[in-house]
Amino acid sequence: MWNTKRSVLLAIVLIFAMVLSACGSNNNNTSSEGTTTPTATSGSEASAAPQSVDGVDISDEVHLKMIFVGPKPVDYDIVFTELNKKLKEKINATIEGEFLDWSDWAQKYPLKLAADEKFDLIYSANWAGYSDQALKGGFLELTDDMIAKYMPLTEKAMSDVSWDQAKVNGKLYMIPQNSGESVEKVILYREDLRKKYNLPAIDSPEAFSNYLIAVSRNEKGIIPFTPESGDWKFHNLDRILLKQQNEWNMFDLDMPFAFKLSDPKGQVFNVYETQEFKDLLVYYKNLADNNAWSKNVLNSKNDHQQDFRQGKTAAITHNTGTTGSLMEQMRRENSEYEVAIADINPDKAKSVAISTQNGTSIHATSEHPERAMMMIDLMQNDKEIHDLIMYGIAGVHYEPVGDDKYKTTDKNANFTGFSNWDFNSPLNRGNESFPQEVTDMVNSWESQVYHYPLETFVFDNSKVKTEIASVGNVMLRYGIPLEYGVIKDIDKGLEDLNKQLKAAGLEKIQGELQAQIDAFLAKQ
Known about the structure:
D-Maltodextrin-Binding Protein, domain 2; 3 domains; 5-stranded mixed sheet; disordered N terminus
């Protein structure tokens, strides 16, 4: 009796298992469109990850690591958790970010590449030594075939000019941003303090100096001006008072070379040997003597933007995008401080960023370069992914306004301040509350934007790497103290600076740079 019942039960179980197997077999069939359903990850639990995208096998899940510059966002975990869900669904990959804070990124960034650490992607930019790191072998070369296969959206959206601007010696090591921006530096200052002391409009270097000195003499506990921290050989105020004021272009802020924008031959000169630089040192010395910045300025690691937001400093410098965003944030938070921006070179030629102002490079030792390229493709061109990496979570960090605008929330600052700008693209949203006066200022520059033959020139420093490193050390040791008015005798300080630069190999670098410029212009 028991054996009979057991046989019947066994037969029922076998029939039921066959039915389940048949159902499962039908569910796993490939559709007529050629799509496949996800395979199981463990047991009977199915995964949402696709097995292929445009013929690329992505059946193996990949974990990517990317190096960003800037502070780690407060809400990194919740945003990247959501981002990784989407990346897993679309390309079966996840990403982890590591952040190099502004106070020490300049030292850590090259070390990350030199030490061959394990990571896949890294923010790159012309101002962060892109061409130098490419020539050192830190970045993977990206070929046309790779871009066509793994980045079809980017290949379609990016202009030939942007690709060309990103090439070093004819080879590509970066996926550049795909949206232009102004790179001119402006001054963000306390308008309430200007009004309080009945000062004239800040529209010239002299007016700015008067403002800083007035704050220094009358406002206790407020530092008049705070520069950005880091090992900048030429800080943002230099770019306003030296580069923009004199309509020069400086190839690389790690070298003291410039040429006049109006010079068709691109004759290079040593900035430190010019009368313009000496005059600027006199200007800076006067500010230093009047306590326009902290006595500890050479060693400060303060976040100048946060200091301004908190009322600890009365002026900072940055580009219009950054200063405008900070203005918007302070107004949204009902800050007690009235703030404004100033262009103290209103009649000078302006320039726009070339594509390498922001970009993403793949580490030369990445084990997953194909999936890394696919991820960049989505970051720039997939609306859902782009919105996440650029603005955070809708309803938390921002409110979408149509397809191309957004409104910030009180948690917006929890996902800002780091280098997600490398994913700039035509999908960028405009801040509905971005200060109109900043937009008007940028628009007013359109007739002053200056394009010049050397705009896309890239210096190959492979023959003078040692000399450039030595010159950079001299600039930090002898040049920066001069610029902040620490050296009492300007003439003696300049003499020592230029003497040390020549000993470090300045003339060899200049000769190599000029030879490459001449060759570049000869081909135009």
